[in-house]
Amino acid sequence: MSRRIKRMNPKPRERDERKEARPFKARGAKAVGPRPGGKPPAKPPRFAAERRAPKAAMEEPVAAKPVEALLPTKVETVKVTADENNMRVDRFLEARFPGLSFSHIQRVVRKGELRVDGKRVDSKDRLEEGQSVRIPPLKLDAPKAAVGSPSEAAQKTLQALKEMTIYEDDDVLVLNKPAGLAVQGGSGMTRHIDQMLEVMRDSKGQKPRLVHRIDRETSGCLLIAKTRFAASHLTGAFRSRSARKTYWALVRGLPKPKQGRISTFLAKEESEDDTIMRIAQHGDEGASHAVTYYAVVETAGNKLTWVSLKPVTGRTHQLRAHMEHIGHPIVGDPKYFNIENWQLPGGLQNRLHLLARRIVIPHPRGGVIDATAPLPQHMQQSWNLLGLDATRFDPIENAPEE
Fold first, then answer.
1. Any catalytic annotation for residue 215?
2. How many angstroms separate the CA atoms of 262 and 325, rounded?
């Protein structure tokens, strides 16, 4: 019986001490949608226009308080109500304080300024009725331009988003995120996808929402919800693992076996200027189980291999840490490629060779979204130089659904 990969010692190991992956066998599951490289499906049929609620009887209008007046100017502690039970932390803040940007919410949670029953939490954690939530002083982002014609900067941003768009309808947007553009803001970062989506706010002030994230240096499919309805359904699909993602990567060496399953625990290790994921043991503080299927698509000698990756879980840097763990780090990875005296073949750019190639997920209103991203320029250059055929069948299609 082959073994699952599980590094019990978090310390780095020598290359010859690494374990091989557990091979996977096809379980007869039918592949969902067309093979990678095919055209995305036609726009899913729309339901008939939703009935509008009748206007309320003639009443005296009540002046609404400005959003700024609702924001706490000092630390406040509030109780989670019955209606807010099982609500995610970020959705809780968004519901209580409309108008707060996604990046601002993530920032106060990440820095530990928001506490639940005195403890730090993650934005994805869920609240329970009766819990005490410590809320720090909050503020709106810089005011937007007055309603009317968009500014020149806004028009350029809209055009940039249009050029990235792979698929779009009234509820969903799939972008082909370029390498080097972050999904969310961070220290010293002024341009990122979440900030760019500000120009797409509707008449009610709602802007499209991020459904998941990919690393800054990873290019490819990024799913965006354009409505609250879509956001709820799409995040539910990720939570139930009915969303299927495929990644392509160029790695060092030739993985053996050629098809396998990597199963480990991962924990975040932070320093002042860097964050990496290390292999951890079950029960370690902050350790989360992570599972990845991989399959060799094509080789370039024994030095480089094109692999297809299918993450079952969605941990930070999961694919990058897993490929490093089995001794085949992704080419151009500044965090996890640590092979000494390894020379990059001539003509290849020293950039992360990782693409979020394809996403298949149920559409909120029925049908399936199936979007595919092309190779970015630096990876296309490598494929050309190495003689790799991007139209080859992707054997990850046969990986089990888990």
1. yes
2. 9
Dump the DSSP string for 260-294. Answer: EEEEEEEEEEE-SS-EEEEEE-TTSTT-EEEEEEE
Beta bridge pairs of residue 294: 260, 309
CB atoms near residue 195 (< 10 Å): 18
The string of DSSP letters for 75-118 reads -EEEEPPGGGTT-BHHHHHHHHSTT--HHHHHHHHHTT-SEETT
Q: Which residues contact 8 (CB under 8 A, 6 or more apart)?
A: 281
Preceding amide of 257 cis, omega within 30: yes
Q: Which of 90, 194, 215, 333 is catalytic?
A: 215
Q: Angle at CA 389, nearest 5°, toward 386 and 390?
A: 115
The Cα 345–Cα 343 span in angstroms is 6
pLDDT at 80 over 70: yes
Instruction: State the distance between the two ends of the chain, measured CA to CA, in whole angstroms.
Output: 19
Lookup: tokens for 235:
């995040």
Angle at CA 386, nearest 5°, toward 383 and 388?
55
- Nearby residues of 261 by Cβ (< 8 Å), 6 or more positions away: 4, 21, 22, 23, 24, 291, 292, 293
Spacing of C-alpha 200 from chain mean position: 20
Q: By mean pLDDT, which of 1-15, 76-90, 311-325, 377-391 is the weakest?
A: 1-15
CA distance 395 to 35: 10
Helix (H, G, I), strand (E, B) or coil at 8: coil
Q: Which two tokens stand for residue 365?
A: 């209103």
Q: Is it the case that residue 95 has pLDDT exceeding 70?
A: yes
| Nearest CA-CA partner of 250 in 137, 160, 344 | 344
**Residue with structure tokens 């709106």?**
140
Instruction: Tell if the pTM clears 0.85, that is, is over it.
Output: no
Report the C-alpha gap between 296 and 23 in whole angstroms: 12
Beta-carbon contacts of residue 272 (< 8 Å; ≥ 6 apart):
none
The closest alpha carbon to 182, from 108, 93, 103, belongs to 103
Q: Are 255 and 21 spatial neighbours (Cβ–Cβ below 8 Å)?
A: yes
Phi, psi of 147 (to 5 degrees): -60, 140
**Beta-sheet pairing, 354-362 with 288-300:** unpaired
**Residue-wise pLDDT tens digits, 211-240:** 999 999 999 999 999 988 999 999 999 988
